[in-house]
Amino acid sequence: MEKKIIEVLEKLRPYIMDEGGDIEFVKFEDGVCYLKFLGQCASCPMKMMTLDSLFKESLINEIDEITDVVLMNE
Asked: pTM for the whole thing?
């Protein structure tokens, strides 16, 4: 499962790296994928919108086992 998640994140990573940010896979547990924003994204006021519109939507659409995507705090 971790490999599938990381593959999807690798495809999306360039979109946020252009803005000085990055994303890290933390864990997958009970259908929930936990992620952590790094760099500029960690303090961006739009990070929840980015999470929902880019990462959550993509991960749920591409990996059937994922039911939700949650952002971990620092």
From this structure: 0.90
